[in-house]
Amino acid sequence: MTGDAHRGELGDFLQARRSELSPDMVGLPGTGNRRRVRGLRREEVAALASISTDFYTRLEQGRRRASEEVLSALARVLRLSADERDYVFELSGREQRSGRPAQQQAQPQLRRLLDDLAATPAVVLGRRTDILAWNPMAAALFTDFGRLPEKDRNFVRLVFCDQRVRGLYPRWEYAARNGVAQLRREAAQDPDDPQLAALVDELSAQDTDFRRWWTAHQVAVRGAGSNQVRHPVVGDLTLDWAALVCTADPDQQLFTWTAQPGTPSHDALRELASRVSAGVLP
Q1: pLDDT tens digits along 133-144
Q2: pTM listed for this prediction
């Protein structure tokens, strides 16, 4: 992606966030039903950020670059989260990432750690949420990744396109939107990745929800969280997940899923582990 295109992405993001704010949310008087646009007007954002309307208009149109001071002011006015603020700064002046191999392989240290986590579902995710490695517990919890074509071993693709994986999530929208937000952040970090562009094009063509959420420009990077899984064998589980970044290759993360001890989810996870150990896979 060229610098001009990158600035265009920033403009789209600012416009999307502007449309989500009403005057009363930022301390401006309301105007009833007389507003022709959803959200704040450009001149309102500009005034609150102490910049000219012309400058802000050009910024949204991808025709201007902004200083750190202006970006900080806009982040404050638009009430951006910490992740969204980082995203804006990445779009505005990040260092180009180059020299990385197109195909990743899981680091040997992470593979050994996967083997040691016999009772804990764990996977190694690379760029674009590509699934680089997994342990038997992860295969038992989600799906047998080894039976999938290599191109289909992508977590976001599975959440949207694989009916079995999709059906595992009672809160499917929560999981799916998190995946979209992660890809949106990666698009800012590495906008020249052709494989990411191809994945976004594919999912946008196949799924209207993905297309809608992608254009909403939501971004998030979370290192931990929780979600529910409805497993066909051991039942409903509430699992806490955590992502550990590999220092040898920061583009790789080890994801684990655990349950709080003493809970039915913990018992269900232990039952799944015993089945895996006995070779009785679901």
Answers
A1: 999 999 999 999
A2: 0.71
